[in-house]
Design goal:
Elements: E1 14-20, E2 27-33, E3 42-43, H1 54-63, H2 78-83, H3 97-119, H4 123-130, E4 135-140, H5 146-157, E5 167-172, H6 173-184, H7 187-190, E6 196-202, E7 207-216, E8 222-225, E9 230-232, H8 236-252, H9 258-279, E10 286-290, E11 303-304, E12 307-311, H10 312-334, E13 341-345, H11 352-362, E14 368-371, H12 379-389, E15 393-397, E16 401-409, E17 422-424, E18 430-440, E19 445-447, E20 451-460, E21 473-480, E22 502-510, E23 520-524, E24 527-539, E25 546-553, E26 556-559
Protein backbone atom coordinates (compact mmCIF):
# COMPACT_ATOMS: atom_id res chain seq x y z
CA UNK A 1 0.00 0.00 0.00
CA UNK A 2 1.21 3.48 -0.90
CA UNK A 3 2.02 5.81 2.00
CA UNK A 4 0.45 9.26 1.95
CA UNK A 5 3.29 10.78 3.98
CA UNK A 6 7.07 10.69 3.65
CA UNK A 7 7.35 10.61 7.43
CA UNK A 8 6.37 7.68 9.67
CA UNK A 9 3.66 8.31 12.25
CA UNK A 10 5.19 9.74 15.41
CA UNK A 11 2.18 10.04 17.68
CA UNK A 12 0.11 7.77 19.86
CA UNK A 13 -1.69 4.82 18.18
CA UNK A 14 -4.78 6.12 16.44
CA UNK A 15 -7.54 4.97 14.11
CA UNK A 16 -9.02 7.48 11.65
CA UNK A 17 -12.22 6.53 9.82
CA UNK A 18 -13.33 8.60 6.82
CA UNK A 19 -16.95 8.33 5.68
CA UNK A 20 -18.42 9.66 2.45
CA UNK A 21 -22.15 9.08 2.68
CA UNK A 22 -23.29 9.66 -0.89
CA UNK A 23 -26.53 9.92 -2.81
CA UNK A 24 -26.12 6.75 -4.86
CA UNK A 25 -23.24 5.00 -3.09
CA UNK A 26 -21.10 5.48 0.00
CA UNK A 27 -17.46 4.80 0.79
CA UNK A 28 -15.47 4.23 3.97
CA UNK A 29 -11.70 4.42 4.32
CA UNK A 30 -9.56 4.07 7.42
CA UNK A 31 -6.00 4.36 8.61
CA UNK A 32 -4.40 2.67 11.59
CA UNK A 33 -1.52 4.88 12.67
CA UNK A 34 1.10 3.73 15.14
CA UNK A 35 4.54 5.00 16.03
CA UNK A 36 7.26 4.34 13.48
CA UNK A 37 4.94 2.86 10.82
CA UNK A 38 4.02 4.19 7.39
CA UNK A 39 0.85 6.25 7.09
CA UNK A 40 -1.46 4.45 4.66
CA UNK A 41 -5.13 4.55 3.67
CA UNK A 42 -7.16 1.37 3.43
CA UNK A 43 -10.70 0.91 2.12
CA UNK A 44 -13.37 -1.10 3.87
CA UNK A 45 -14.67 -3.36 1.12
CA UNK A 46 -16.69 -6.02 2.90
CA UNK A 47 -20.13 -4.69 2.10
CA UNK A 48 -22.08 -3.69 -0.97
CA UNK A 49 -25.39 -2.56 -2.41
CA UNK A 50 -27.54 -5.30 -0.91
CA UNK A 51 -30.68 -3.21 -1.30
CA UNK A 52 -30.63 -3.48 -5.10
CA UNK A 53 -29.80 -7.18 -5.41
CA UNK A 54 -32.47 -9.32 -7.05
CA UNK A 55 -32.91 -11.37 -3.86
CA UNK A 56 -33.49 -8.30 -1.69
CA UNK A 57 -35.83 -6.71 -4.23
CA UNK A 58 -37.99 -9.83 -4.21
CA UNK A 59 -37.89 -9.97 -0.42
CA UNK A 60 -38.82 -6.28 -0.22
CA UNK A 61 -41.80 -6.85 -2.48
CA UNK A 62 -42.96 -9.87 -0.46
CA UNK A 63 -42.59 -8.14 2.90
CA UNK A 64 -43.74 -4.65 1.90
CA UNK A 65 -40.44 -2.88 2.37
CA UNK A 66 -40.00 0.64 0.96
CA UNK A 67 -36.71 1.84 -0.52
CA UNK A 68 -35.38 5.11 0.94
CA UNK A 69 -34.06 6.28 -2.42
CA UNK A 70 -31.72 9.28 -2.68
CA UNK A 71 -32.42 10.16 0.97
CA UNK A 72 -29.34 12.41 1.07
CA UNK A 73 -31.22 14.96 -1.06
CA UNK A 74 -33.63 15.55 1.83
CA UNK A 75 -30.79 16.94 3.96
CA UNK A 76 -29.71 19.53 1.41
CA UNK A 77 -30.32 23.10 2.64
CA UNK A 78 -33.67 24.52 1.58
CA UNK A 79 -32.02 26.86 -0.92
CA UNK A 80 -30.49 23.88 -2.73
CA UNK A 81 -33.67 21.81 -2.57
CA UNK A 82 -35.81 24.50 -4.18
CA UNK A 83 -33.49 26.08 -6.75
CA UNK A 84 -34.15 23.34 -9.31
CA UNK A 85 -37.82 22.84 -8.35
CA UNK A 86 -37.00 19.20 -7.71
CA UNK A 87 -39.52 16.57 -6.69
CA UNK A 88 -37.80 14.18 -4.30
CA UNK A 89 -38.57 10.55 -3.72
CA UNK A 90 -40.65 10.42 -0.52
CA UNK A 91 -39.18 8.96 2.63
CA UNK A 92 -40.83 5.75 3.80
CA UNK A 93 -43.97 6.67 5.69
CA UNK A 94 -43.38 6.87 9.44
CA UNK A 95 -39.59 6.90 9.15
CA UNK A 96 -37.74 10.13 9.93
CA UNK A 97 -34.67 11.34 8.08
CA UNK A 98 -32.63 11.18 11.28
CA UNK A 99 -33.62 7.52 11.75
CA UNK A 100 -32.45 6.69 8.22
CA UNK A 101 -29.11 8.44 8.75
CA UNK A 102 -28.57 6.77 12.11
CA UNK A 103 -29.33 3.31 10.73
CA UNK A 104 -27.18 3.77 7.64
CA UNK A 105 -24.20 5.20 9.52
CA UNK A 106 -24.49 2.31 11.96
CA UNK A 107 -24.49 -0.12 9.03
CA UNK A 108 -21.32 1.44 7.60
CA UNK A 109 -19.52 1.53 10.93
CA UNK A 110 -20.38 -2.04 11.90
CA UNK A 111 -19.05 -3.38 8.61
CA UNK A 112 -15.98 -1.17 8.87
CA UNK A 113 -15.20 -2.60 12.28
CA UNK A 114 -15.69 -6.14 10.96
CA UNK A 115 -13.34 -5.45 8.04
CA UNK A 116 -10.75 -3.89 10.37
CA UNK A 117 -10.84 -6.82 12.78
CA UNK A 118 -10.49 -9.35 9.95
CA UNK A 119 -7.75 -7.59 7.96
CA UNK A 120 -5.53 -6.05 10.65
CA UNK A 121 -3.41 -8.30 12.87
CA UNK A 122 -4.93 -8.29 16.38
CA UNK A 123 -7.60 -6.07 14.86
CA UNK A 124 -10.27 -6.62 17.54
CA UNK A 125 -7.84 -5.80 20.35
CA UNK A 126 -6.50 -2.73 18.54
CA UNK A 127 -10.01 -1.42 17.80
CA UNK A 128 -10.97 -1.69 21.48
CA UNK A 129 -7.72 -0.06 22.61
CA UNK A 130 -7.93 2.85 20.15
CA UNK A 131 -11.69 3.42 20.46
CA UNK A 132 -11.41 6.20 23.10
CA UNK A 133 -9.12 8.16 20.78
CA UNK A 134 -10.76 7.25 17.46
CA UNK A 135 -11.42 10.04 14.96
CA UNK A 136 -14.34 9.84 12.56
CA UNK A 137 -14.23 12.28 9.65
CA UNK A 138 -17.51 12.88 7.82
CA UNK A 139 -17.23 14.37 4.31
CA UNK A 140 -20.08 16.54 3.07
CA UNK A 141 -20.93 18.88 0.15
CA UNK A 142 -19.40 22.35 0.16
CA UNK A 143 -22.85 23.90 0.37
CA UNK A 144 -23.66 22.29 3.71
CA UNK A 145 -23.02 24.21 6.91
CA UNK A 146 -23.06 23.71 10.66
CA UNK A 147 -26.76 22.84 10.67
CA UNK A 148 -26.26 19.81 8.44
CA UNK A 149 -23.04 18.91 10.28
CA UNK A 150 -24.89 18.90 13.58
CA UNK A 151 -27.63 16.71 12.11
CA UNK A 152 -25.07 14.15 10.92
CA UNK A 153 -23.16 14.28 14.20
CA UNK A 154 -26.30 13.62 16.21
CA UNK A 155 -27.28 10.77 13.88
CA UNK A 156 -23.87 9.17 14.43
CA UNK A 157 -24.07 9.60 18.21
CA UNK A 158 -27.49 7.94 18.15
CA UNK A 159 -25.98 4.80 16.57
CA UNK A 160 -24.98 3.57 20.02
CA UNK A 161 -23.36 4.55 23.32
CA UNK A 162 -19.93 3.34 22.14
CA UNK A 163 -19.78 6.26 19.66
CA UNK A 164 -20.47 9.04 22.16
CA UNK A 165 -16.80 9.36 23.13
CA UNK A 166 -15.41 9.30 19.60
CA UNK A 167 -13.97 12.45 18.10
CA UNK A 168 -16.10 13.60 15.17
CA UNK A 169 -15.05 16.21 12.65
CA UNK A 170 -16.07 17.31 9.17
CA UNK A 171 -14.38 18.10 5.88
CA UNK A 172 -15.89 19.34 2.65
CA UNK A 173 -15.87 16.87 -0.21
CA UNK A 174 -13.98 19.39 -2.32
CA UNK A 175 -11.16 19.78 0.17
CA UNK A 176 -10.89 16.05 0.79
CA UNK A 177 -10.68 15.58 -2.97
CA UNK A 178 -7.61 17.83 -3.18
CA UNK A 179 -5.74 15.49 -0.87
CA UNK A 180 -6.97 12.46 -2.81
CA UNK A 181 -5.62 13.93 -6.04
CA UNK A 182 -2.27 14.83 -4.49
CA UNK A 183 -1.99 11.28 -3.17
CA UNK A 184 -3.08 9.35 -6.26
CA UNK A 185 -1.33 11.40 -8.94
CA UNK A 186 1.88 13.26 -9.60
CA UNK A 187 -0.02 16.53 -9.34
CA UNK A 188 1.86 17.73 -6.25
CA UNK A 189 5.19 17.59 -8.13
CA UNK A 190 3.66 19.59 -11.00
CA UNK A 191 2.38 22.39 -8.78
CA UNK A 192 4.42 25.53 -8.28
CA UNK A 193 4.10 28.27 -5.69
CA UNK A 194 1.36 30.81 -6.55
CA UNK A 195 -0.27 28.36 -8.96
CA UNK A 196 -4.08 28.55 -9.09
CA UNK A 197 -6.06 25.34 -9.35
CA UNK A 198 -9.73 24.40 -9.38
CA UNK A 199 -11.13 21.29 -7.74
CA UNK A 200 -14.44 20.02 -9.12
CA UNK A 201 -16.07 17.23 -7.12
CA UNK A 202 -18.93 16.03 -9.31
CA UNK A 203 -20.89 13.64 -7.13
CA UNK A 204 -24.28 12.04 -7.12
CA UNK A 205 -26.38 15.05 -6.16
CA UNK A 206 -24.01 18.02 -5.90
CA UNK A 207 -21.12 19.51 -7.83
CA UNK A 208 -18.68 21.26 -5.49
CA UNK A 209 -16.14 23.66 -6.95
CA UNK A 210 -13.29 25.31 -5.04
CA UNK A 211 -10.49 27.61 -6.20
CA UNK A 212 -7.12 27.30 -4.44
CA UNK A 213 -3.79 29.12 -4.58
CA UNK A 214 -0.64 27.10 -3.84
CA UNK A 215 1.14 28.86 -0.96
CA UNK A 216 3.94 26.34 -0.43
CA UNK A 217 5.06 23.09 -2.01
CA UNK A 218 7.56 22.02 0.65
CA UNK A 219 8.08 20.67 3.20
CA UNK A 220 4.31 20.18 2.98
CA UNK A 221 1.82 21.33 0.38
CA UNK A 222 -0.14 24.34 1.63
CA UNK A 223 -3.21 25.69 -0.12
CA UNK A 224 -5.32 28.81 0.39
CA UNK A 225 -8.89 29.19 -0.75
CA UNK A 226 -9.19 32.04 -3.23
CA UNK A 227 -12.97 32.27 -3.12
CA UNK A 228 -15.83 30.90 -1.13
CA UNK A 229 -16.42 27.46 -2.59
CA UNK A 230 -19.46 26.88 -4.78
CA UNK A 231 -22.00 24.09 -4.45
CA UNK A 232 -24.80 23.46 -6.93
CA UNK A 233 -27.47 20.80 -6.95
CA UNK A 234 -26.33 18.75 -9.92
CA UNK A 235 -24.70 15.38 -10.46
CA UNK A 236 -25.21 11.88 -11.75
CA UNK A 237 -28.54 11.30 -10.04
CA UNK A 238 -30.16 14.01 -12.16
CA UNK A 239 -29.11 12.22 -15.34
CA UNK A 240 -30.84 9.14 -13.94
CA UNK A 241 -33.97 11.14 -13.16
CA UNK A 242 -34.16 12.49 -16.73
CA UNK A 243 -33.82 8.94 -18.09
CA UNK A 244 -36.51 7.75 -15.70
CA UNK A 245 -38.92 10.43 -16.94
CA UNK A 246 -38.20 9.51 -20.56
CA UNK A 247 -38.56 5.74 -20.03
CA UNK A 248 -41.72 6.12 -17.94
CA UNK A 249 -43.39 8.08 -20.73
CA UNK A 250 -42.48 5.37 -23.27
CA UNK A 251 -43.65 2.44 -21.16
CA UNK A 252 -46.90 4.17 -20.28
CA UNK A 253 -47.97 4.18 -23.93
CA UNK A 254 -47.02 0.50 -24.43
CA UNK A 255 -50.18 -0.89 -22.81
CA UNK A 256 -48.38 -2.83 -20.06
CA UNK A 257 -50.06 -3.98 -16.87
CA UNK A 258 -48.90 -2.33 -13.66
CA UNK A 259 -46.63 -5.17 -12.50
CA UNK A 260 -44.86 -5.54 -15.86
CA UNK A 261 -44.46 -1.80 -16.17
CA UNK A 262 -42.81 -1.61 -12.76
CA UNK A 263 -40.46 -4.53 -13.47
CA UNK A 264 -39.38 -3.26 -16.89
CA UNK A 265 -38.94 0.24 -15.51
CA UNK A 266 -36.70 -1.03 -12.69
CA UNK A 267 -34.65 -3.19 -15.07
CA UNK A 268 -34.29 -0.39 -17.61
CA UNK A 269 -33.24 2.16 -15.01
CA UNK A 270 -30.65 -0.15 -13.50
CA UNK A 271 -29.15 -1.25 -16.81
CA UNK A 272 -28.88 2.31 -18.11
CA UNK A 273 -27.14 3.49 -14.93
CA UNK A 274 -24.67 0.60 -15.04
CA UNK A 275 -23.78 0.61 -18.74
CA UNK A 276 -25.09 3.25 -21.16
CA UNK A 277 -24.65 6.13 -18.72
CA UNK A 278 -21.04 5.13 -18.05
CA UNK A 279 -20.15 4.52 -21.71
CA UNK A 280 -21.85 7.55 -23.25
CA UNK A 281 -19.36 10.02 -24.68
CA UNK A 282 -20.84 11.30 -27.93
CA UNK A 283 -24.16 12.05 -29.60
CA UNK A 284 -22.97 10.03 -32.61
CA UNK A 285 -23.15 6.58 -30.98
CA UNK A 286 -26.06 4.27 -30.29
CA UNK A 287 -26.26 2.59 -26.88
CA UNK A 288 -28.45 -0.29 -25.77
CA UNK A 289 -30.60 -0.77 -22.69
CA UNK A 290 -31.32 -4.36 -21.64
CA UNK A 291 -34.64 -5.11 -19.89
CA UNK A 292 -33.59 -8.65 -18.89
CA UNK A 293 -36.45 -10.35 -20.77
CA UNK A 294 -35.91 -11.63 -24.32
CA UNK A 295 -39.68 -12.14 -24.70
CA UNK A 296 -40.31 -8.42 -24.24
CA UNK A 297 -40.82 -6.69 -27.59
CA UNK A 298 -42.64 -3.42 -28.21
CA UNK A 299 -41.51 -2.11 -31.57
CA UNK A 300 -43.77 0.93 -31.23
CA UNK A 301 -41.35 2.22 -28.58
CA UNK A 302 -38.18 0.68 -30.05
CA UNK A 303 -37.82 -2.44 -27.88
CA UNK A 304 -36.89 -5.70 -29.63
CA UNK A 305 -36.16 -8.94 -27.80
CA UNK A 306 -35.70 -7.14 -24.52
CA UNK A 307 -33.35 -4.44 -25.80
CA UNK A 308 -33.85 -0.77 -26.65
CA UNK A 309 -31.54 1.10 -29.00
CA UNK A 310 -30.98 4.60 -27.64
CA UNK A 311 -29.55 7.23 -29.96
CA UNK A 312 -26.75 9.32 -28.56
CA UNK A 313 -28.64 12.54 -29.26
CA UNK A 314 -31.39 11.33 -26.91
CA UNK A 315 -28.96 10.36 -24.15
CA UNK A 316 -27.27 13.73 -24.50
CA UNK A 317 -30.50 15.46 -23.47
CA UNK A 318 -30.34 13.60 -20.14
CA UNK A 319 -26.88 15.08 -19.52
CA UNK A 320 -27.37 18.58 -20.92
CA UNK A 321 -28.71 20.43 -17.89
CA UNK A 322 -26.26 18.89 -15.41
CA UNK A 323 -23.22 19.43 -17.64
CA UNK A 324 -24.25 23.00 -18.50
CA UNK A 325 -24.77 23.83 -14.81
CA UNK A 326 -21.37 22.35 -13.97
CA UNK A 327 -19.59 24.38 -16.65
CA UNK A 328 -21.41 27.53 -15.58
CA UNK A 329 -20.40 27.01 -11.94
CA UNK A 330 -16.79 26.39 -12.92
CA UNK A 331 -16.66 29.56 -15.00
CA UNK A 332 -18.02 31.60 -12.10
CA UNK A 333 -15.38 30.14 -9.79
CA UNK A 334 -12.64 30.91 -12.33
CA UNK A 335 -13.60 34.58 -12.76
CA UNK A 336 -10.58 36.78 -12.04
CA UNK A 337 -8.24 33.78 -11.88
CA UNK A 338 -6.01 31.99 -14.36
CA UNK A 339 -6.04 28.39 -13.13
CA UNK A 340 -3.58 26.04 -14.78
CA UNK A 341 -5.22 22.87 -13.44
CA UNK A 342 -8.76 21.59 -13.03
CA UNK A 343 -8.94 18.47 -10.85
CA UNK A 344 -12.04 16.41 -11.63
CA UNK A 345 -13.17 13.84 -9.06
CA UNK A 346 -16.36 12.26 -7.74
CA UNK A 347 -18.66 9.54 -9.00
CA UNK A 348 -20.11 11.68 -11.79
CA UNK A 349 -16.57 12.87 -12.51
CA UNK A 350 -15.99 9.42 -14.03
CA UNK A 351 -18.51 10.18 -16.79
CA UNK A 352 -16.73 10.08 -20.16
CA UNK A 353 -19.08 12.70 -21.56
CA UNK A 354 -18.52 15.15 -18.70
CA UNK A 355 -14.77 14.72 -19.00
CA UNK A 356 -14.82 15.41 -22.74
CA UNK A 357 -17.04 18.48 -22.35
CA UNK A 358 -14.80 19.97 -19.67
CA UNK A 359 -11.68 19.34 -21.74
CA UNK A 360 -13.30 21.02 -24.76
CA UNK A 361 -14.41 23.99 -22.68
CA UNK A 362 -11.33 24.76 -20.60
CA UNK A 363 -8.18 23.26 -22.12
CA UNK A 364 -8.32 25.69 -25.03
CA UNK A 365 -7.63 28.44 -22.46
CA UNK A 366 -4.65 26.63 -20.94
CA UNK A 367 -6.41 24.98 -18.00
CA UNK A 368 -5.54 21.28 -18.00
CA UNK A 369 -8.25 18.90 -16.83
CA UNK A 370 -6.55 16.39 -14.55
CA UNK A 371 -8.13 12.98 -13.96
CA UNK A 372 -6.81 10.52 -11.40
CA UNK A 373 -6.35 6.92 -12.54
CA UNK A 374 -7.81 5.44 -9.37
CA UNK A 375 -11.58 5.41 -8.88
CA UNK A 376 -12.47 8.99 -8.00
CA UNK A 377 -15.79 7.90 -6.50
CA UNK A 378 -13.73 7.07 -3.39
CA UNK A 379 -12.01 10.47 -3.39
CA UNK A 380 -13.79 12.03 -0.41
CA UNK A 381 -13.37 9.00 1.86
CA UNK A 382 -9.66 8.57 1.07
CA UNK A 383 -9.00 12.29 1.10
CA UNK A 384 -10.67 12.83 4.46
CA UNK A 385 -8.13 10.49 6.08
CA UNK A 386 -5.18 12.38 4.62
CA UNK A 387 -6.78 15.73 5.48
CA UNK A 388 -7.26 14.69 9.10
CA UNK A 389 -3.66 13.55 9.49
CA UNK A 390 -2.17 16.74 8.06
CA UNK A 391 -4.31 19.82 7.73
CA UNK A 392 -2.68 21.74 4.88
CA UNK A 393 -5.25 24.28 3.78
CA UNK A 394 -3.93 27.41 5.46
CA UNK A 395 -6.71 29.82 4.60
CA UNK A 396 -10.47 29.90 4.15
CA UNK A 397 -12.97 32.34 2.77
CA UNK A 398 -16.03 32.95 4.94
CA UNK A 399 -19.16 31.82 3.12
CA UNK A 400 -21.53 34.06 5.05
CA UNK A 401 -21.50 36.94 7.54
CA UNK A 402 -21.17 36.06 11.24
CA UNK A 403 -22.26 38.29 14.08
CA UNK A 404 -24.47 38.62 17.13
CA UNK A 405 -27.46 40.57 18.45
CA UNK A 406 -26.81 43.69 20.54
CA UNK A 407 -28.72 46.44 22.31
CA UNK A 408 -27.96 49.95 21.11
CA UNK A 409 -28.68 53.36 22.65
CA UNK A 410 -32.07 54.71 21.59
CA UNK A 411 -32.13 57.68 19.20
CA UNK A 412 -35.70 59.01 18.83
CA UNK A 413 -34.76 60.89 15.64
CA UNK A 414 -33.53 57.71 13.91
CA UNK A 415 -36.30 56.21 11.72
CA UNK A 416 -34.85 52.73 12.31
CA UNK A 417 -35.37 53.18 16.07
CA UNK A 418 -38.86 54.61 15.80
CA UNK A 419 -41.53 52.01 16.49
CA UNK A 420 -39.19 49.78 18.47
CA UNK A 421 -39.67 49.16 22.17
CA UNK A 422 -37.17 51.19 24.21
CA UNK A 423 -36.11 50.00 27.67
CA UNK A 424 -33.98 51.58 30.39
CA UNK A 425 -30.56 49.96 30.91
CA UNK A 426 -28.34 49.71 33.99
CA UNK A 427 -26.61 52.96 33.05
CA UNK A 428 -29.93 54.79 32.97
CA UNK A 429 -29.96 55.12 29.18
CA UNK A 430 -32.81 54.12 26.91
CA UNK A 431 -31.92 51.38 24.47
CA UNK A 432 -33.45 49.21 21.74
CA UNK A 433 -32.65 45.55 21.17
CA UNK A 434 -32.35 43.42 18.05
CA UNK A 435 -29.44 45.24 16.37
CA UNK A 436 -27.04 43.22 14.18
CA UNK A 437 -23.36 43.50 15.13
CA UNK A 438 -21.06 41.90 12.56
CA UNK A 439 -17.94 40.04 13.69
CA UNK A 440 -16.71 38.98 10.26
CA UNK A 441 -18.20 39.71 6.84
CA UNK A 442 -18.90 37.29 4.02
CA UNK A 443 -15.99 36.71 1.64
CA UNK A 444 -13.20 37.46 4.14
CA UNK A 445 -10.06 35.34 3.77
CA UNK A 446 -9.02 34.07 7.21
CA UNK A 447 -5.77 32.20 7.71
CA UNK A 448 -6.11 28.87 9.50
CA UNK A 449 -6.21 29.45 13.27
CA UNK A 450 -6.61 33.21 12.69
CA UNK A 451 -9.44 34.88 14.59
CA UNK A 452 -11.84 37.65 13.65
CA UNK A 453 -12.89 39.26 16.94
CA UNK A 454 -15.02 42.13 18.16
CA UNK A 455 -15.34 43.68 21.60
CA UNK A 456 -18.66 43.82 23.42
CA UNK A 457 -19.78 44.99 26.85
CA UNK A 458 -22.49 43.97 29.27
CA UNK A 459 -23.62 46.23 32.11
CA UNK A 460 -24.40 45.35 35.73
CA UNK A 461 -25.98 47.49 38.48
CA UNK A 462 -24.53 46.98 41.99
CA UNK A 463 -27.27 46.04 44.43
CA UNK A 464 -29.70 45.37 41.59
CA UNK A 465 -28.10 42.99 39.10
CA UNK A 466 -27.44 39.33 39.73
CA UNK A 467 -23.87 38.38 38.90
CA UNK A 468 -24.59 34.65 38.88
CA UNK A 469 -24.52 34.49 35.07
CA UNK A 470 -20.77 35.23 35.06
CA UNK A 471 -19.94 31.63 35.98
CA UNK A 472 -21.93 30.27 33.04
CA UNK A 473 -21.86 33.23 30.70
CA UNK A 474 -23.41 32.62 27.28
CA UNK A 475 -23.76 34.54 24.05
CA UNK A 476 -25.12 33.72 20.63
CA UNK A 477 -23.53 33.64 17.18
CA UNK A 478 -25.88 34.45 14.31
CA UNK A 479 -25.38 34.32 10.56
CA UNK A 480 -26.80 36.35 7.70
CA UNK A 481 -27.46 34.25 4.60
CA UNK A 482 -28.93 37.01 2.44
CA UNK A 483 -27.40 38.53 -0.66
CA UNK A 484 -24.53 41.00 -0.11
CA UNK A 485 -25.85 44.52 0.32
CA UNK A 486 -29.29 43.42 1.53
CA UNK A 487 -28.57 43.16 5.28
CA UNK A 488 -31.07 45.46 7.04
CA UNK A 489 -28.78 45.87 10.05
CA UNK A 490 -31.38 44.47 12.43
CA UNK A 491 -31.89 40.81 13.27
CA UNK A 492 -35.38 41.54 14.61
CA UNK A 493 -37.95 43.75 12.94
CA UNK A 494 -40.05 46.27 14.85
CA UNK A 495 -42.56 43.56 15.78
CA UNK A 496 -39.82 41.40 17.27
CA UNK A 497 -39.85 38.88 14.42
CA UNK A 498 -36.61 37.59 12.85
CA UNK A 499 -35.83 39.34 9.58
CA UNK A 500 -35.38 37.14 6.47
CA UNK A 501 -31.83 35.89 5.98
CA UNK A 502 -30.86 35.72 9.66
CA UNK A 503 -30.43 32.49 11.58
CA UNK A 504 -29.04 31.57 14.98
CA UNK A 505 -26.03 29.34 14.48
CA UNK A 506 -24.66 28.45 17.91
CA UNK A 507 -24.24 29.41 21.55
CA UNK A 508 -20.81 30.01 23.08
CA UNK A 509 -20.10 29.73 26.80
CA UNK A 510 -17.40 30.76 29.25
CA UNK A 511 -16.79 30.81 33.00
CA UNK A 512 -16.20 34.49 33.81
CA UNK A 513 -16.54 34.06 37.57
CA UNK A 514 -13.02 35.36 38.07
CA UNK A 515 -14.07 38.71 36.57
CA UNK A 516 -16.50 39.55 39.40
CA UNK A 517 -13.99 41.79 41.14
CA UNK A 518 -12.57 43.24 37.93
CA UNK A 519 -15.66 44.75 36.32
CA UNK A 520 -15.00 48.27 35.04
CA UNK A 521 -16.73 51.14 36.90
CA UNK A 522 -18.87 53.57 34.91
CA UNK A 523 -21.12 56.50 35.77
CA UNK A 524 -24.41 56.98 33.97
CA UNK A 525 -27.65 58.92 34.27
CA UNK A 526 -28.70 56.77 37.24
CA UNK A 527 -25.30 56.86 38.92
CA UNK A 528 -22.68 54.15 39.24
CA UNK A 529 -22.79 50.91 37.27
CA UNK A 530 -20.26 48.30 36.06
CA UNK A 531 -19.43 46.79 32.71
CA UNK A 532 -17.94 43.51 31.61
CA UNK A 533 -15.64 43.71 28.58
CA UNK A 534 -15.23 40.63 26.42
CA UNK A 535 -14.64 39.63 22.81
CA UNK A 536 -16.51 37.24 20.55
CA UNK A 537 -14.06 35.48 18.24
CA UNK A 538 -14.61 33.48 15.06
CA UNK A 539 -11.77 31.13 14.14
CA UNK A 540 -11.08 29.52 10.78
CA UNK A 541 -9.73 26.13 11.82
CA UNK A 542 -11.25 23.01 10.22
CA UNK A 543 -14.58 23.20 8.45
CA UNK A 544 -16.69 23.62 11.55
CA UNK A 545 -17.21 27.16 12.78
CA UNK A 546 -14.93 27.74 15.75
CA UNK A 547 -16.41 30.37 18.03
CA UNK A 548 -15.43 31.33 21.56
CA UNK A 549 -15.54 34.08 24.18
CA UNK A 550 -12.26 35.84 25.01
CA UNK A 551 -11.44 38.19 27.89
CA UNK A 552 -8.57 39.61 29.96
CA UNK A 553 -8.35 38.52 33.60
CA UNK A 554 -5.65 39.90 35.93
CA UNK A 555 -3.77 41.16 32.90
CA UNK A 556 -3.73 37.77 31.18
CA UNK A 557 -5.69 36.87 28.04
CA UNK A 558 -8.13 34.01 28.55
CA UNK A 559 -10.75 32.25 26.50
CA UNK A 560 -13.61 29.87 26.96
CA UNK A 561 -13.93 26.52 25.26
CA UNK A 562 -14.72 26.28 21.58
CA UNK A 563 -18.41 25.62 21.98
CA UNK A 564 -20.60 24.82 18.99
CA UNK A 565 -24.22 24.12 19.73
CA UNK A 566 -26.12 24.68 16.48
CA UNK A 567 -29.85 24.78 16.46
CA UNK A 568 -31.10 21.36 15.28
CA UNK A 569 -32.01 21.08 11.63
CA UNK A 570 -35.73 20.65 10.96
CA UNK A 571 -35.95 17.35 9.08
CA UNK A 572 -38.88 16.65 6.84
CA UNK A 573 -41.94 15.19 8.55
CA UNK A 574 -42.09 11.43 8.46
CA UNK A 575 -42.72 10.16 4.97
CA UNK A 576 -43.34 13.62 3.49
CA UNK A 577 -42.39 14.46 -0.06
CA UNK A 578 -40.84 17.72 -1.25
CA UNK A 579 -42.45 19.34 -4.25
CA UNK A 580 -42.04 22.81 -5.62
Amino acid sequence: MKSFSDEPWNGEPKIIVGIDLGTTHSAVSFSYLYKGDRQVVRRAQCFGAEAVTLEKRHQAEDEGWVLAKYFKLHLHPQSMRTQDRLTLYPLPFGVSLSKIYTDFLGYLLRHTRTYFEEHVIHGALIWEKCAPNMLIVLAHPNGWSTREQNFMKQALLDVGPEYKNYQITFVTEGEASVHFCMFHSNMSSALETHTDLIVCDAGGSTVDTTAYRVEKTSPMLELREKKASACIQAGGVFVDLEWEKYLTRLLNVAGLDEEDLRDYLDNGLRNFEEIAKQEFDSADRIHYVDFNDRQFSKEMIGIKKGRMALKGVIIQTFFDQVVSSTIRSLKQQMEGLKPQHLLLVGGFGESKYLRLRLKEEFEKDGCRVAIVDDSTSKAAADGSIIWASKLSVVGRVTRTAYGTIVRTRYDPSNPEHQGRKATRGNGGYQGVAGKWSEIVAEGVNLSAQESARRKFIKSYKPGVSSYSDLETYTDEIWVYYGEPGTNPGWVHDKDGEINPGFEKLCTVTANLGGMRGALLPRTGVDGRYEVLEFWLAIQAGGTELCARIEWVENGKPKHGPVTIMPEPIDPLPNGENVTN
